[in-house]
Fold this protein.
Amino acid sequence: MSTIAEKIFARASGNGEAEAGDIVMADIDIAMMHDLTGPLAVESFNKIGTEKVWDSSKIVIPFDHQVPADSLDSANNHILMRKFVKEQTIENFYDVKEGVCHQVLPEKGHVIPGTVIVGADSHTCTYGALGAFATGIGSTDMAMVLSTGQLWFKVPETIRFNVEGKLKENTSAKDVILNIIGQVGADGATYKSCEFAGETISEMNISDRMVLSNMAIEMGGKTGLIEPDGKTYDYLKDRVSGENRNRLKAFIEKSNLKSDLDSPSLEIMDIDVSELEPQIACPHNVDNVKPASELDVEIDQVFIGSCTNGRIEDLRDAARILKGNKIANELRMLVIPASKETYLKALDEGLIKIFVEAGALVSAPCCGPCLGGHTGLIGPDEVSLSTSNRNFKGRQGSPEGKVYLSSAKVAAQSAIEGRIAVPKEE
Amino acid sequence: MKGKVWKFGNDIDTDIILPGRYLIYTDEERLSEHCMEGLVSDFKSKVNAGDFILGGTNFGCGSSREHAPIAIKGCGISAVIAESFARIFYRNATNVGVPLLEAPGVSALIEDGEEIEVDMENGLIISESGKEIEFKKLPPFMLEILESGGLINYLKNQKNE
Ligand code: SF4
């Protein structure tokens, strides 16, 4: 009679059992920090005065937010972090070339079902797509993890979205999650573990599942969990090595990482997506969701990328629509593959050529304009259509700019038309 | 604690509290100069030490950046009062030593610019006109963290004891 979250904390706390509401001290399996949140965490770690991190093989540091360095300040941050990596002999360090943290960790086999992962980044919840309890924390909490390998948690209640129905051709996982967030609101799942289940989810590939888990935080969720299954195993099996290989096998074979539906801390919400139309989150809140067909909005910039929709599947979706077409005059389009692996696949498959010929700019893997800290900012009164996850005021540059969020399919069609547009059903 | 109220709406996210382009800084001084800048220009210079921020529901949603509560602290804000807080922000603010007071119903009762008093011990907010609004009292360990000026100092103090 437990949820996935309770089962994971039963193990991680060493108590053998855990119930929603319990406050537990849990062992951390993996801790992640990046070039932007890392410096503050290292500063706090140094203040505590512990000399060595708790386990240098369990810390993962990717550089992705400001890569390559775009200012002296970020160059200095990178230097500080590289020094930390050397001093502490951090084994898993991915310098500027590897890609966005939330894509790199699963790709490099750091995410094992049933483990507890914390990251100094709110979208750490993405790894729940592979069955890990993963959540974002701040730099001081991270400093405590770095020195002790533990952190306290309140075991969360669970809200399970039971998704049924076959998606239409012009929609995707992004439309499902935007629709859910629109229904429950930006604080509809605060403190809760979100679970995505049902036939639609079983049918989805890992990439689509990551889109759902990624955006659990946009409704306040602590994580976004999906039961690991054969697809999880297939995705990870060639990516993990050593001890993690055996752990992965064990988790899948026991196959008990499922929520018991009679758990007292579980609430179920049924979602039918068979009639779902392409969705857009309108400024300035992610829960301000409307069907794309109802909008009449001209755009200045399209961004395809980020840890939400910058994977190879998204690039394929976009390229299919853009092939042989040109983007609208006066529109700027940025395509940023989420990782080196994605970039190489896109090159192999000829997708990059399609984007460049259509008139897009293609950049090396990084967060890009997603958080408005690096490249591709929008100016006052400009409108961005973005496949990322947040449209808060000022998120991509000027507070007077506007950010709309959509799937890669809608973004590609809109780039051609110069305004928010619905792709045809194929 | 006594001070003036700076009132904001619902869903005040961390990009508003501190825009992403300033995450390159880690020091309180520089971060606080950009606090709330999308909504109030030069917020820091307008705030007096001890003032309060009053928010609606879901205050602090969005990114996990601890830079946001640090910026608030650097402005001299003595506490943030709101209908409800987002989860990561709640942990972060406590960890850096900014008290968060959760008081459902508060935004209808207190106006922007009002002078209020906060009684931490009894969990009461007292408005200019003398209205008393209750907030969820903080557990003793949290008060201790806040009094130490944050989790790091608290841990250090414990080490020394
Ligand atoms: S892509 Fe955007 S949301 Fe994802 S980690 Fe980077 S900045 Fe954060």
The mean pLDDT of chain B is 92. The interface with chain A takes residues 11, 13, 15-16, 19-21, 23-26, 37-38, 57-58, 61-67, 84, 86-88, 91-92, 95-96, 150-152, 155-156, 159 of chain B (CB under 8 Å).
